Amino acid sequence: MFWIKHRRSILWILYALFFLHAILWYTCGYQRIGQFAFGEIFLTLKTGIISAGTIFVLLVFIHALFFGGLFCGWFCHWGVTQDVFAWILKKCGIKPIMRHLESKYIQWAWFIILITQVVLFWWFNGLPTKFVFNPSYTEVWAGNPKAIFMICMTCIVSGFLLIFLFGERAFCRSICVFRLWFSWFEKFSKYKIIRNKECSSCSNECSNSCFMDVNVAEEVKINGVVRNTACVKCFKCMGACPNQALTASFQKSPYEKNEEISRPVPLFDSLISTIQVAFTILVLHFFGYSIGGNMSLSLGLVSGFVIIHILYSKSISWFEILLIPLIATGLHYGNDMNPATSLVKGLFAISLFIIIAKYIGFKKGFDFIDKIPNEIKVSKLLITIILIPAIYFSCIESVASYYLQKAAAAGEKKDWKTYADLYEKWGEYNNDKVNLYFDLGKVELFNLNEYDKALESFKKSFDLLYREDLVVDTAELLLTEGLPLHSKKLLTYYIDKGKDSQILKDLLEEAEKEITKKKAKVLGK
């Protein structure tokens, strides 16, 4: 079959198109079509703005009604990326072992957070009164890390690490909320992997090839069809079958039955999954706004597992001793906006992880993983200790979301005092602090005449993501508004931090001249 034979080439072409879209947007200025992302559906639900991403989501959902989870197997860029990571590990002599992950706790937790944000928005702003089509409303890379080093750290945590510990497509099988959605569509889809002739004696090549941990062999031998909702129709099982007994079809298999299929014991039981959700909430609270939801969810899952491993094995492995500081250091210095140094550090971190995984390994840790389903019992006291701070911080997050939505509503009504007061207090909990503080600075400057506060807000924005062009524009704006002292303070602040380009120095000189003129005018000279 053509699709099976050329699967890898097709995936590379799709990924090339993905990057071409970003290049056209940022380099060539072709900004007529914005981001294609599932989160855009929540934007439409809140604001009524129909972006390119909204159309994309609706088309994918219509497609999923007929083909189920096929999108995840062929078109998801993060799914393709995970396949590349698994390939790299294998090429480096590391063959990840598939661990059965069946818990959807983290997926449901993230889904509930997304829905809660929409409901809170409706509470303060009401339902959308009209829908407006704006295909380029959201920029291509919005919501993703801007620094190459942070992108590499995301690849380590959400890709290489999860695959190394739990097998291929571990992120899809345990974290991705969109994979949860596709599992629902899979229940209705008539397009299935079916057995079209007798199964000859084999070595379960179809099951061994499945990166979604579906026991294809058992399903097709007993029922003639794969009904497991984890199936993403990647067709790898069809290509692996030595007897070509499998095909994908809307038609029923001639061997179709509806017998009960035995399920393997999940790696994480409900209690361990509860701990992982608790850690996910904690990571989201303390780091989610700086490292993003993708990495936060992955760190939550891994942190919960590591804590259980250390507590119950009464030891910490060399793998964990080396990995924890690697991740912590990478996250601390992750926002390096210099492309060259950021790339070098990112590739070094990835190489270092692979070296640790290959030559240090997890060894006894993997023995521990194999014992989890049958032997490891999590005490209720431990769960209580971990859940208390998780519940506390989730309440803080809920309150923060409440006030952030209230602030946005105040901005729509041009109640600038309420807008500024709320964002000054709760802005740290916004997922786009760079733009929030910049917009807050403009409100404080133009609408409230609170110049000192405006300066601090601008500095908060530029500290998070330094862009010389915006600093220059802001310094010039302050000069235009008759605030040369504030312009000087802004320029001096970044020159002292090592951003001493000639354009900043020239502007600083201009600001000092304006200050001198003002003093002379006051003194009547």
Summarize the helices and strands and which ones pair or pack:
Elements: H1 2-5, H2 7-26, H3 40-47, E1 49-50, H4 52-67, H5 70-74, H6 77-91, H7 105-125, E2 132-133, H8 148-166, H9 170-174, H10 177-188, E3 192-195, H11 205-209, H12 216-222, H13 236-240, E4 246-249, H14 270-291, H15 293-313, H16 318-332, H17 339-360, H18 364-375, H19 380-412, H20 416-426, H21 433-446, H22 451-464, H23 468-480, H24 484-496, H25 502-523
Parallel strand pairs: 1-2
Antiparallel strand pairs: 3-4
Helix pairs in contact: 3-4, 3-7, 4-10, 6-8, 7-10, 7-19, 8-15, 8-17, 14-15, 14-19, 16-17, 19-20, 20-21, 21-22, 22-24, 23-24, 23-25, 24-25
Would you summarize the structure shown here?
The protein has 25 helices and four strands.
Structural notes for this entry:
This protein has 525 residues and is an all-alpha fold. It is 67% helix and 2% strand. The protein contains 25 helices and four strands. The chain has helices at 2-5, 7-26, 40-47, 52-67, 70-74, 77-91, 105-125, 148-166, 170-174, 177-188, 205-209, 216-222, 236-240, 270-291, 293-313, 318-332, 339-360, 364-375, 380-412, 416-426, 433-446, 451-464, 468-480, 484-496, 502-523; strands at residues 49-50, 132-133, 192-195, 246-249. The strands form two sheets. Strands 1-2 form a two-stranded parallel ribbon. α20 packs antiparallel against α21 and α23 (468-480) packs parallel to α25. It is elongated and about 100 Å long. The N and C termini lie far apart (88 Å). The model has no long low-confidence stretch (mean pLDDT 88).
